[in-house]
Structure formats: structure tokens, C-alpha cells
Design a protein that fits this description.
globular, alpha+beta, about 80 residues, about 35% strand, 5-stranded antiparallel β-sheet
Length: about 80
């Protein structure tokens, strides 16, 4: 996937229920929310662990675009990471 500069809303629309791997993020002040960034990859739930392991130390941000049900509590904690 070629990097594309996108807003968070565009990422959610284009990659629903996926993990979005982001470089050069613009953060929302003191909040962990990303306003925009360069999308490096969109990754499924099944593949996110393997992807993170193979890309350690690259300064990437990982966010899940949408959550629902009890999984949202797990993903909310797991998704806000920089590796």
C-alpha cells in the first residue's frame, strides 16, 4: 500500500473495522486522538499482532477504526500504542 495522507474520518470511512497503521500523525492536542496522518497499511484483527511484531521500532501509530460490543474495551486499550 502506498502512503496516503488522510483525515481520521476518511480512515474510518475507507477502512471500517480495521487497524490503521499511521505515520506522521497530527494529534489532537493532549488527547490521544489522531486528526490526520499518513496511512501506511490497513490490517485485519487476525493480522495486527504479527504486523506489529515485524514493525517494532518504526514509530508507527496503530488505531482501530471502529469498535462495537465488549471488544471495544479490549481494543480501546490495545489500539493506542506507538511501537
Amino acid at each position: 500500500m502506498d502512503k496516503r495522507r488522510m483525515t481520521w474520518d476518511q480512515m474510518v470511512e475507507e477502512y471500517p473495522d480495521m487497524w490503521v497503521v499511521i505515520s506522521n500523525p497530527v494529534m489532537d492536542g493532549d488527547h490521544p486522538d489522531i486528526l490526520e496522518g499518513d496511512v501506511v497499511e490497513a490490517v485485519s484483527d487476525d493480522d495486527i499482532g504479527k504486523f506489529k511484531s515485524s514493525h517494532r521500532g518504526q514509530g508507527l501509530e496503530y488505531r482501530r477504526t471502529t469498535e462495537s460490543g465488549w471488544n471495544s474495551m479490549f481494543y480501546a486499550d490495545f489500539s493506542i500504542t506507538t511501537v
